[in-house]
Amino acid sequence: MAYSEKVMEHFANPRNVGELPDANGVGEVGNPKCGDIMRMYIRVEDNVIRDVSFKTFGCGAAIATSSMATELIKGKTIDEALQLTNRAVMEALDGLPPVKVHCSVLAEQAIKAAVSDYYRRLGIDPVPIVGELHDCEEESCACGGH
């Protein structure tokens, strides 16, 4: 399985890794079939994601997609972050092997989970804004394991 140079770079030198102590939104998603778990931390001020970090337990592609996703939403408004798709994450990494596409889905879902938590902490129902959250399940993604 061949990975792009960008995937290898984000795996070897992930950006924004670790916990964010002053996060006001934290989301965790996972894939029960292959065991990837992503936790995304965001600090929102004035509707802008001022800081973001992640902790991921998973394969190299899971780490790379988490890293790239944080880079793509840092400094963006919440609305802009919610428009980030797994396809955009894959394109920013110059592609992923088909059996690793689920990692980009998890990255997209982790952002949505963190934003949902942010809204819940404000006492706002996140579902009308973010939509329903779902983990990457066996039936809905091409998880080939690691």
UniProtKB/TrEMBL annotation:
Domain NIF system FeS cluster assembly NifU N-terminal: 2-121
Single biological process term from Gene Ontology: iron-sulfur cluster assembly
Any Pfam family hit: NifU_N
GO molecular function, one term: iron ion binding
Name of this protein: Fe-S cluster assembly scaffold protein NifU
Organism from which the protein derives: Candidatus Caccousia avicola
Lineage: Bacteria, Bacillati, Bacillota, Clostridia, Eubacteriales
